Model the fold of this input.
Amino acid sequence: MAKDPVCGMEVKETQAAGTSVYKGKTYYFCEPGCKTKFDENPEIYLKPKEEEKKVKEVKLQSAEGRKTSLIKEREAKSNRIDLPIVGMSCASCASTIQRDLGDLKGVERASVNFANSKATVLFQPQLIKPEDLIKSIRRTGYDVGTASLEIPVRGMECASCVQNVEKALLGARGVTKAAANLATEKVRVEYIPSEISLTQIKKIIEEAGYKVLEIPHDQEAEDIERIVRQKEYKTLKRKFFIGLVLAVVIFVGSSAHWFPWVPDFLNSFFVLWTLATPVQFWIGWQFYKGAWGAFRHRNADMNTLIAVGTSAAYLYSVVATLFPNLFASAGIEPKVYFDTSVVIIVLILFGRLLEARAKGQTSEAIRKLVGLQPKTARVIRDGKEQDVPVEEVVVGDVVLVRPGEKIPVDGVVKEGKSSVDESMITGESIPVRKKAGDEVIGATINKMGSFKFKATKVGKDTALAQIIKLVQDAQGSKAPIQRLADIIAGYFVPIVISIAIVTFIIWFDFGPQPVLTFALLNFVAVMIIACPCALGLATPTAVMVGTGKGAEYGILIKGGESLETAHKIDTIVFDKTGTLTKGEPEVTDIVVMNSLSQHALLRYAGSAEKASEHPLGEAILSKAGEQRIDLIDPVDFKAVEGQGIEAKVDGRSILLGNKKLMKDRGVKLRDSESRADQLAEEGKTPVYLAVDGQVSGLIAVADTLKENSLQAVGRLKNLGLEIVMLTGDNRKTAEAIASKAGIESVLSEVLPEDKVLEIKRLQSGGKRVAMVGDGINDAPALAQADIGIAIGSGTDVAVEASDITLIKDDLEGVVSAIDLSKKTIKIIKQNLFWAFFYNTAGIPVAAGILYPFFGILLNPILASAAMAFSSVSVVSNSLRLRRIKLVRQEEK
Amino acid sequence: MEKIIVTVLGLALVILVNWYFLFSRRRERQAVMKKDRLQEVTVRVKGGYDPDVTVVRKGIPVRLNFYRDETADCSEILVIGEFNIRKPLPAFKTTAIEFTPKEEGEYAFTCGMGMLRGKLIVR
Done:
């Protein structure tokens, strides 16, 4: 092997496109262009060699230690960087990149090697930065395989620290970009994994005097939160049990009339006070803390209500304990309500415990998804297998996957065959066969064979990362139905406090004796029973569980709004090609018109079409391939635009095309014409085959329905939806396909750009329209529809125009998505009803509105029990969504 | 007499409560200008927003760094309705929100339920 001195490509001496002899040495070239360039000025291509040698020496010394090499390189004024290039398909790509790089100011020499897809650049760091080199390459239309990572760094305290860190990193070879952020205390590094490892990057930051924290995987933030939550949960539990014991003792002691066997000392106000105080201020401390935090920000929340309510009962009791005479002189029997404040606190803690447990389950779907992320990948670099962290896999890497292993990132199979379990991403339970050229999705599991694939999407671009992001965003969103509840929640607490005070005044002014006691108890009851939490949790919890459930089935819903609109849909418009049908024409009929056999007919047609790229031709070719027919190369092949083809096969002249082609060439159609019309009637495209000027047969080609289109349409009809098919096909073909799919309304001969208009027309007729399409050609129509459903997007998860994305190419997903929407909205409505009903009915009852009529008063203890369980009931109701079955599953 | 005192004090308290929680003025802070034409402010989220009111200049990109210093669910989601922003804030993490205010005015930001309130004033 020799090296082309111009482009750097490896050339076999025997296969070189040209050779030149210069100064007694023979040079070999990959293409004539390189030879011409070399002959014009050989020196410029040979001189750099010398420099490269020098650089190599520096590199060799670096074996002594990374540190010395860094210093030496800095001394050697110009830096060298090897950039892996993605997307080069020929040697001329290499020379384009090389030329563009060479033209940049500050670049001393650039050589791009097509064979190993690398650009080696010598440049002066003071004049140009590596990221400019990368930009230049990207501008030419190629990409550079870089990895990028956020590293948390401690100790950066000022703007100059930021500069220090960035400078240190940019000085290292392999780092292409470094940006430190003081606020987040993070450094974003873009680097070339084959040049510098993560460990080296960390070392550089530490050598600059800063501390590198453990690099978080995406789930870490969630983990910290979970750890803290778990700790809080434990503390809460402990406090609850201690509180429970004390509350029981206090309750028994305060209710001597019910428990006459209780020793007398427990009835003492002072003993009760002593027992109640730790509950009030230690166990109930979180309410004070929360209330104070909110108060400082001029906010009021439920902590405010609980803190004020229980404090009122507690303080009243303290006064009654210390100065009983004060009450006696006013003619009131001194009483204490330590039991009230203590039991309220304990009950509300109990409610929070239940709520925390239930709410942990609402985000389970995300945790499951995050847990799917693979940690390492086995990549092949420089011909060697090596295990690297999945963050270091770059686009273009070749990754090896063995049986039973997780596929680390998205990509395209290069060699090998296997079947892959994609259920975690698409919801499809049957493993999918994969061969060279097929797409594989990261986080799915390889079942059978080993294969190699080329990474096409890494990091935040993988399907899984996008799914996680989509679901997270969707879970954070709320349905518009919640809006009213939100507006109320914003003013809720101050209003409740106001109502409580007014209640106090009314009971004090107009109530029965002892007025103070009644006023106080009803004040506390109003404060305690109001529950803004139930209002606030009604929608978000249901949306969280609903979107999570969808993700399990490969149904990605953009947010609460989409979820809500989807259940109001009354019309579904399906795009025909690629949505209802497979989108690839297939040969459906072969009609023999004379003595020629079907086999011979297909052989002639297939051979004639061998060079054709027309979709109809491809359908015929694949049919011939299916039947293992040996095709031969046609002679004198000619395509007749819009009509068909002509060619010579085995010395016989073949005409393959439509009626017009036959008529133009004077071929008599006879009874083949009526047969052809019949086929067209069935929605198929008939192709005439004439051999030596005689019609020998017909081949019908049609785009066939997907296996479950008919079922899915039937189920959507059962849900009471009107189904419309939209297509550019002529009316006959369109109606034939539609009737097979069980669809009555057809909009045919619609130009692609008019699809939007058709949707608008339906909408102006008062319909709420969902459009189902492939997300690429149909994007405008998807966006126009009330709900756009993109289907079969594979690894392109984030389809901008759609509200719902179905990862799997399966119409059943549409049924499931609508079903899920209906079920989720039903739960939300139930939740909102209960939350509103509970608060609107609960507050007046607590205020004593029933007392004048029925003599009913709500004990504050009962109020607190009601309050504690209101949020729990809302959350548990939402959790029911986890167990629902979507239509598709029920049928299976 | 007692009744009059209780009634007057009670009603005064109602007015005070509503004024304090709903209508009173909050602390303001001016966003810090960075040299790369970006105004930045860090807001600590704990039982409310600290600072409550942030003043930013019109037409210059704004980065609000929300650091959520608690696990309390109330502050889990941040909403800036006018800018169509609705974002979950992970606990003990800084979440940056970037946008460019185009028009002068006052924009409220709240928690997911609208109970915690802060304000962004564009001048």
In short: Chain A touches chain B through 46 residues (CB under 8 Å). The first strand of chain A starts at residue 2 and ends at 3. Residues 812-847 of chain A form the longest helix (36 residues). Chain A is about 50% helix and 20% strand.
